[in-house]
Structures are given as C-alpha cells and as structure tokens.
Amino acid sequence: MYRHLIAFLVVLATLIVISGCNVRNIARRIYATHIPNAPYDAVIIPGMPYDSATQQKKGFNARIVWAKKLFDGGVVKNIIFSGAACYTPFVEAEVMKLIAIEMGIPKEHLFTEPKAEHSKENVYFGWLLAQQLGFKKVALASDPYQSFFLEGFIQANVPQMGIIPIDVDSLKKYYIPLPKVDLTSAYVHDFVPLNKRESFWTRVKHTNHNNLPEAIPEEYLK
User: Fold this and answer.
1) What is the distance between the alpha carbons of residues 100 and 112, in angstroms, rounded to a whole number?
2) Contact yes or no for 28/66 (Cβ under 8 A)
3) pLDDT tens per residue across span 79-118
4) What residues contact residue 94 under an 8 Å CB cut-off, 6+ apart?
5) Are 179 and 99 contacting, i.e. CB atoms less than 8 angstroms apart?
6) Angstrom distance (rounded) from CA 55 to CA 52
7) 3-state SS class at 142
8) Which CATH architecture has domain 2-220?
C-alpha cells in the first residue's frame, strides 16, 4: 500500500516539475490552437473550494476574473460554472455565479452545474449541460496547469471542446480581490467533505484516469 503511495507521489512530483518547466509554452500552444475558433457559445469554468474564512485562494479569483474578461471581450457568449460543495460547505458553481453577477455579468448568461466533484467531471457534466442548453461551440477555461492536465482527456472524450487557458504571462493580474456577496443560498447544511466520503485512492482514480460516471451519449458528440 505504502509503496504504491510513494510511487504515485514520485510520478506526481515529476509531472509537476515537467509541467512547471514548460507551462508557458504549453499554455501558449493550447491558447493559440483554440482561440481562432472563438466566439464560443459557452465556456465551462471549473470550480475551486470557497473558504469564507481565508477570503479565497488566488486561483479561485483568477478563474472568475478570466471568465469575465472572456465574456466582456466577446470570446464567449455564456458561462457555465461547474462544481459541487467538495471540501467546504459552499457549492462552488453557485458561489462563482453569485460573484460573477456582482461583477456585472448579466445573470441570463450565467449557468451552474453543481454536481462535479473532480476535474474530469467538470468537463463531463459541463459538456452535457451545455448541449442540453443548445450550446454547440463549447470551451473549457481554467488555469494553465489544469488546462494542460485536462487536454488529453478532452481530446480523447470530447475533441470538439476548445480550451482557453488563463494568460500565463500576466496570471498575477487576475489575482485581484472579488466583491463580497451574500452566499447564503450556496451554503450546504449537513455538509460532509469529499475526503470523508471518498478514499484517497478513489479520488486519485477520478483525477488521473480516463474514467467517467458513464460514457457521454453519442448524440451529444455530434
């Protein structure tokens, strides 16, 4: 058991080092490949845990600010925030939507997918919701690291999906404070964190393998 854990951590550390060394080139390549296909009908923004006590991690702020920039710039027409209440009692997608409204994005262009608990489920459930809403051209927008790690999964499962990483050369400018919002409606009572509901290895499986709750129906892949 411990040998497997050590092996996994070594591989993970290696991947982090490799991706960190090449993140700028990777992000530029992915962005350059997919931005010519804009405008997109919708963009999926994966959630991050919201922690009211620490007033948020920089990555959380950057994803919402990036989403607003894409919307304001006409790169995307609608935004789908994806994410359940995983490690804090706030539904990530709902929190992001409430903040985005406060930042001036019209609520009729904002949608939430509140079931995803893993990065690949953000892709899976976000894609299904987009198709159900009638959006045909869909992209994922996230930080350069998550964009890189999801690229192969997207190519294998939903190759029509675009990927628009946050501009890595000016990433810090997206680490700005967000407006304070009443998040009562996004709070989950009787919350149980994901690490209490799933084992470590189950979470690793969801994160590192091409598994989905079920195959994406063929009609959504046309």
Assistant:
1) 12
2) no
3) 999 999 988 999 999 999 999 999 999 999 999 999 998 8
4) 81, 112, 114, 183, 185, 186
5) yes
6) 5
7) coil
8) 3-Layer(aba) Sandwich (3.40)
